[in-house]
Amino acid sequence: MTFTGRSTPTAVSFREALFGGLAADGGLYFPVETPDLAGLFAGWGGETSFREVGSAMARALLAPEVRPADAARIAERAFTFEPLLRRLDDHLLLLELFHGPSGAFKDFGARFLAAAMEAFLREDERIQILVATSGDTGGAVASAFHDGRGIDIVILYPSGRVSDLQERQLTTLGGNVHAVEVEGSFDDCQRLAKEAFRDRVLSRRLRLTSANSINVGRLLPQSFYYAWAATRLPAAATFCVPSGNFGNLVAGVYAWQWGLPVQGFLAATNANDEVPRYLQTGRFVPRASLPTISNAMDVGDPSNFERLARVFGGDWSRMAAMVRGCPISDEETRAEMRDTWQRHRLLVDPHTAVGIRATRRLLGSGDLEGEVIVLSTAHPGKFADTVREAVGVTPDLPPELARCLELPKHSTRISPRFGELSSFLLERFA
Ligand SMILES: *Cc1c(COP(=O)(O)O)cnc(C)c1O
């Protein structure tokens, strides 16, 4: 598979898109080819393991650039855990994607990206991954790159503005994971990272690379669990995707484009409802984001909307025929966490609750038929306070996270001045 930018017609390889992150025009990369994987999908059933699905799709998508054995090895190294499909009701299943090391679906993308980068590096090469995090996604990236050969990872986070658990996830791994605590805000962290990527001295002496969520190395593997789940059901289902930046939904739409039988998609959002509005009105109006209790979805201008629009040739009515939208308020999200607990004795995190609520609403009004698979994006223990306040029950932490709470914190504190970050990087890695 090859990729082009928004306004750069020359196609680049997977490898180039992986290490570059953004296209030469500064925008997203889009896949050029639409491979036909229908034959592959048709051969799978209830016994096919996630690893088999991941290996086969990686082989098919990365050929001919990556040798089949190498593509399979990347998937095998990345996916040390499995998704789980759990039936809740007659029409509703949960696709649990939080059984990886950081307790959220972002492990699938981050671990595949890390394994792919590692596979492409020569013995004598060394790169430095630089990421800024507001807390939530840093853990998946840190743990994905931990112990990676030829890779150092530097994580910038705002001091005192992330939760204790989030901070432990970044600061207890050690080894090649370097946590830098910035005395400032998340915006300061992002500004410092951007400045580092632009800096002449750093780019001459280091090999700084990003690992953003828009990287195609994170996007492609998210299509694998759609295929794994869909081929376990006898008929095409609807996927309900709790969405913020819309990477997860786009990956599902890609799988459908490649021949996966899917009835439709339901984009469930919180109050940040720009995409549901677009699906209603045909007008996309990005806004500043609003804070909600499902805060990993607080995105007012989702970057992957452009990828979604492109799949449908920019045609609103074609998109609206395949993708429906449904915004859910914080009040309804809390009510759903309570309902799911009362009906099923199951605790769900607020993001998953948004998806379940949207699905129940459309099933209830007769606007959806058949089976609906709701993507369950995080372990409830990652959002323990929100779950406890809504339900009155405290969820356990996922075991790997509980373990990191016991470990000592290691970080380097810097002021939000570029000179300090620059010296830190040069002293360690030049
Ligand atoms: C990132 C995230 C989302 C949103 O996924 P997008 O791909 O940005 O739409 C939903 N739930 C959780 C728990 C997340 O971490």
3D architecture notes:
- It is a single chain.
- The protein is of the alpha/beta class.
- 44% of the residues lie in helices and 14% in strands.
- The chain has 20 helices and 13 strands.
- The chain has helices spanning 14-20, 38-42, 50-62, 68-78, 106-120, 138-145, 164-171, 186-198, 200-205, 216-219, 222-230, 247-257, 274-281, 305-311, 316-322, 330-344, 350-364, 384-391, 399-404, 418-429; strands spanning 3-4, 30-31, 84-87, 92-96, 127-132, 151-158, 177-182, 208-209, 237-242, 262-269, 323-327, 372-376, 412-414.
- The chain has a 6-stranded mixed sheet.
- Helix 3 packs across helix 4 (68-78).
- The mean pLDDT is 95.
- Residues 104, 106, 136, 242-248, 296-297, 351, 377-378 line the site of pyridoxal-5'-phosphate (PLP).
Q: Give the strand tally.
A: 13
Helix content: 40-55%
**Shape descriptor:** globular
Mean pLDDT, as a whole number?
95
* Class inferred from helices and paired strands: alpha/beta
